[in-house]
Structure formats: C-alpha cells, structure tokens
C-alpha cells in the first residue's frame, strides 16, 4: 500500500501524485550540462519539500571537513616551498628537513583519509549486499 493510499484512507484525502522530476544518469564522461541538470533536479526536489541540496548530513560534513584539511595541508606545504624558493638562496639542510617532514605528514594524512574512504566504501558495499 502506498503512502498516498494510507493518507487517503486515514484522512479522507485524495491521493497526491508526486511531481515529475527530471532524472539524470551520469557516466564517467558526464558533461557540464549533465551536472547542471542534476543540480537543477536537486533544486526542484528541494522546492517540493525534500531536503535542500546544501543540507548535508553530519557524516558528509565530517568527510568534506577531512578533505578540506588535507587540501589545506597541501596549500601549506606549497606555500612553505614557495617561500623557500622566493628567498633566492639555496635551502639550508634544516629547511630541507622541515620541508621533508611537512611532506611526510601530508602524505600520512592523505593515506589515512584514503584508507578511511576505502573502508567506508567496503562497509557500504557489504551493507547493500546484505540488504538485497
């Protein structure tokens, strides 16, 4: 029994048909028009009472926060290297060690983030397999 039929039986309301939303199937070669169409479909769904496309779940916010942290570290390493290059003199052994340490720390966080993403993906795949 559909939700509309239950609502009609309980409240004596006529069944409501959901509005038609344009569906988009994007493959690996999705174009800008596809992405724009998808964003338009999300906006249309939001105007019909669904969750807004900008309203992310806390888990998604945490994931994007971690990606932003890694991106910030990449900028920091880049700025450190550019500052050393802008001095116009050869890097001292201490500068080289400092840059190496920053690069190692950045790579560690990249690997950690990648590991978490892979384990999350594996867990979701297992969940979907169990659900079907």
The coarse overall form would be elongated
Number of structural units classed as domains:
2
Order of helices and strands: HHHH
Q: What share of the residues does DSSP label as strand, in percent?
A: under 5%
Which secondary-structure class do the elements indicate? Answer: mainly alpha
Give the radius of gyration. 24 Å
Largest sheet: none
What's the mean pLDDT score?
Answer: 76
Number of distinct helices = 4
Low-pLDDT parts are 12-16
Folded structure, characterized:
The chain is mostly helical. It has 2 domains: 3-47, no CATH class; 58-131. The chain is built from 4 helices and no strands. The chain has helices spanning 3-11, 32-47, 58-86, 93-131. The longest helix is centred in the last third of the chain and has 39 residues, at 93-131. It starts with a helix and ends with a helix. Residues 12-16 have low confidence and may be disordered.
